[in-house]
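tool_call: predict_structure(chain=1)
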Amino acid sequence: MNRRGIVPAKSVKWGVKWKKSDPRAMMDALADLISTGEVERVSVDGDEGEYVALAELLERPTAPPKSRAIILSPFDGLTIDRAAMEHFFNFSYRIECYVPKPKREWGYFVLPILWGDRFIGRIDAKAERKKRVLTIHALYVEPDFNGLDAVARPLAGALTRFAEFNGCDSVRIAKTVPAAAQRLVTNALNS
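tool_result:
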């Protein structure tokens, strides 16, 4: 909860599954935290679901999100709860490495791209470590995102950092959707 802010109450037991603990024990612990005031129930406009947040997070002033491009792992705290991700960000996402190749929509290990407070796209990338090249098999920009001119340079920076993180010296983009994104992002990578 500390990293994600407001979360569906039922997802609190999610973390327990990784440790093979009893989800009921986690829900009991959540009820105790609510009774002591450390956790509060919150409502989300237009949603009947039950949500909770740490009381101290609700008391802090919030700063506007930084406008920077970030490539997230499928296991990041923000992306791990796919239902919440779709609900709060209107971004449908799944990792497709377990999906048979003919049924994949985006790619083997597709990664979401966050810009400020919204998801603007996703990449299907592979680090070719022997060649030290990060190959972007496909860069998909969300159809409703119209700010690619403004984000091309920060996105190029995120791709460069991601390449370095993966032991690569360069980035090669094979395909973009829409096609016009390739020129913008490639030019930003080369500048």
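agent: Residues 148-165 form the longest helix (18 residues). Proceeding to next step.
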